Amino acid sequence: MAKQRTTTSRSASKTTTRSTQPRSQGKAFHVEFLNQAQKLAWNAFEQHDVLFLLGPAGCGKTHLACAFALSEVLAKKKERIFLTRPILEAGESLGFLPGELADKVDPYMRPMQDCIDKCIGVDTPQRERIERIMEVAPLAYMRGRTFDDAVCIFDEAQNATYKHLKLFLTRFGQNSKIIITGDPRQSDLPGDRVPLMDVVQRLENLQGIGVVRFKHSSIVRHPLVASIIEQLEREEE
User: Fold this and answer.
1) Which CATH superfamily hosts domain 18-236?
2) pLDDT of residue 114
3) How far apart (Å, rounded) are the C-alpha atoms in residues 6 and 188?
4) How confident is the model at residue 17 (pLDDT cuts 50, 70, 90)?
5) Is there a contact between 142 and 87 (Cβ–Cβ < 8 Å)?
6) Residue 134 DSSP SS3
7) pTM of the full predicted structure?
8) Count of Cβ atoms closer than 10 Å to residue 28 Cβ
9) Where are the alpha helices (DSSP H) in 48-100?
10) Which residue has the higher pLDDT, 237 or 59?
11) d(CA 133, CA 237)
12) Contact assessment for residue 188 and residue 89, using Cβ atoms and an 8 Å cutoff
């Protein structure tokens, strides 16, 4: 069973999820939750085929999504992991970026790879297995594909267009789960509308779709991060 640690300090809810090495007995993957929001999100993974994790930077959304994907594969409930993120900052299609495909997308996928490193290490048998079944799936090459027996993670979705989100949501097949993470307050798209929120509003009442909204109190990075975000957003408003 995953264990939850509770403390009385203000920064108690601002500690990242901790993962231990997969165990040979019981569940194949163990995660220790350090705040109630993380536990709520993990339970939501089990209950929904499509889950949106929304909230400010530093809540552990990406880490939780990757940890859940790892747990599903290591427990042999799923066979594949697919990772994607919007490639927005360059302002160009992948074909115009230098290097092979892996070189083009690696800087964007590095945060998810870092989360996986923290969960199961870099040079471990578990990591070797995950490397064999994990695929980076850029949106530019996703049309026409179907992801069966997989956990599909769409990270930083606040920078995705409506077409990107619709494309991704219609890719998953039998025995698969989709996890979409995003911080609506940090979209780099032009204009005030965030397509991610339009999609959530239209879909959240459908059976099989869940939405978990993190608050500033769930930030898991340095305790000062929550204060910085709260102050900046207060000034923006």
Assistant:
1) P-loop containing nucleotide triphosphate hydrolases (3.40.50.300)
2) 85
3) 36
4) very low
5) no
6) strand
7) 0.79
8) 17
9) 61-74
10) 59
11) 44
12) yes
User: 116 with 169: CB under 8 angstroms?
Assistant: no
Q: Contact, 144 vs 70, CB < 8 A?
A: no
Picking from 35-39, 80-84, 90-94, 200-204, which range would have the lowest pLDDT averaged per residue? 90-94
Task: Please give the pLDDT value at position 19.
Answer: 44
Q: In what order do the strands lie in the sheet with 209-213?
A: 134-136, 80-84, 150-154, 177-182, 50-54, 209-213
Residue 232 has pLDDT above 90, yes or no: no
Give 107's contacts (C-beta < 8 A, 6+ positions apart).
none
Dihedral (CA of 100, 103, 108, 114) sign: positive
Quick one: pLDDT at residue 228? 80
Joined tokens for residue 136: 């980076």
